[in-house]
Amino acid sequence: MAEELKRYIFRLMSKVDGLYGIAITDRDGVPVLKVSNENAPELALRPGFLVTFSMAADQGSKMGLGKNHRIVCMYSAYQVVHFNKAPLMVTLVANSTANTGMILSLEDELTDALQDLRQAVDVA
User: Fold this and answer.
1) Which tens digits make up the pLDDT trace of 47-63?
2) What gap in Å lies between CA 50 and CA 30, rounded to an integer?
3) 42-51, 80-89, 95-104: range with lowest mean pLDDT
4) Tens digits of per-residue pLDDT, 19-33?
5) CA–CA distance, 16 with 95 (Å, rounded to integer)
């Protein structure tokens, strides 16, 4: 199942020019699955960076803002898009000129593809 899911995610990545990597983690930032090409910044796919979305989402809900569904972060050379698919977190890393709307449009396809994985992580 994991290899099939990796192939599917790699095909999704090819739909968006400049999308370098997709990481799927649990809520603690522990990588469950990572797919990236040679352009992906290594530090952006490490657990220490990946867990920041989960922490930011928690802080927002504590301030009474409601449940966080996605965060888009723009940097000088990269952009990072996070989707909250509890108990999983999905992080997409792209170059700064990639079409953010196209990246966001991958959310539904990723949600469908991750259904079995979400159940497995939720049980564990």
Assistant:
1) 888 888 778 777 877 88
2) 8
3) 42-51
4) 999 999 988 888 899
5) 11
Helix (H) and strand (E) counts in the chain: 5, 5
| Total residue count of the chain as it appears in this document | 124
pTM over 0.70: yes
Instruction: Give the three-state DSSP class for 25.
Output: strand
Is the torsion defined by CA of 75, 79, 84, 90 positive or negative? negative
Residue 45, Cβ density class (10 Å: 0-12 exposed, 13-18 middle, ≥19 buried): buried
- Is the Cβ–Cβ distance between 104 and 82 less than 8 Å? no
Amino acid at 96: S
